Each structure stands twice: as structure tokens, then as C-alpha cells.
Amino acid sequence: MAMNNIYIMSKVIKILGTGCPKCKSMTGVVNDVVSENAIDATIEKVEDIMEIMKFNVLTTPALVIDDVIAIKGRVPSKDEVLALLN
């Protein structure tokens, strides 16, 4: 008898930025959205410039969801982040 199990994979969110005020703002927005909406996600802060360059991002902050660049060079709204995670 086959079981139809649906696995919802945890999202991997990376915030690329060297620690500038905008990077900190983006981190706060993402953390708030994930906690307020009980989203299953791992949030990684990437501050190493060599790691950031691997994504070919020239303007920070950048939001990477499951290795896809979603936003770069600006701080998104909570609604925008929620839409990207759903």
C-alpha cells in the first residue's frame, strides 16, 4: 500500500550583506516575517565578500531564497518577503 506523504521542505534564506544599515534592516524584516508566520526556514547571514561575489551580486543587501536571488540592493517590505516565501 503506497503512502502519499507530502514533505514540505524547509526554505533556506540567505541575506547577503557586509553589515550595513540596510543589510541589518533586511535581516530584521526577514526574521519578523518568518517568526510571525511560522515559516519553516533557515536564515543565514552571509557577510563574507567572497561568498557574496559567488552570487554575482554587486549591490547589497540581497535576499536569496533556495539559492535564487529574489531581491537585491534594497530593503523589501514584510508583505513582499511573505509573498516570496509562500
Can you describe this structure?
This protein is α+β, with helices and mostly antiparallel strands. It has one domain: Glutaredoxin. It contains three helices and four strands, in the order βαβαββα. A four-stranded mixed beta sheet has the order 2-1-3-4. Strand 1 (11-16), helix 1 and strand 2 (41-46) form a beta-alpha-beta unit. Helix 1 (21-36) packs across helix 3. The longest helix is centred in the first third of the chain and has 16 residues, at 21-36. The termini are far apart. The model has no long low-confidence stretch (mean pLDDT 91).
Cα gyration radius (Å): 14 Å
CATH superfamily: Glutaredoxin
**Uncertain spans, ≥5 residues at pLDDT below 50?**
none
Enter the CATH topology name: Glutaredoxin
Oligomeric state of the chains present here:
single chain
Spatial order of the strands forming the largest sheet: 2-1-3-4
Strand content: 15-25%
Helix and strand composition category:
alpha+beta
Major sheet description:
4 strands, mixed
CATH class: Alpha Beta
CATH architecture descriptor name: 3-Layer(aba) Sandwich
Total beta strands: 4
Domain Thioredoxin-like fold: 13-85
Organism: Pricia antarctica
Pfam families: Thioredoxin_3 (PF13192)
Keywords: Disulfide bond, Redox-active center
Q: Briefly, what is this?
A:
This is Small redox-active disulfide protein 2. Helix content is 34%, strand content 24%. A 4-stranded mixed beta sheet has the order 2-1-3-4.
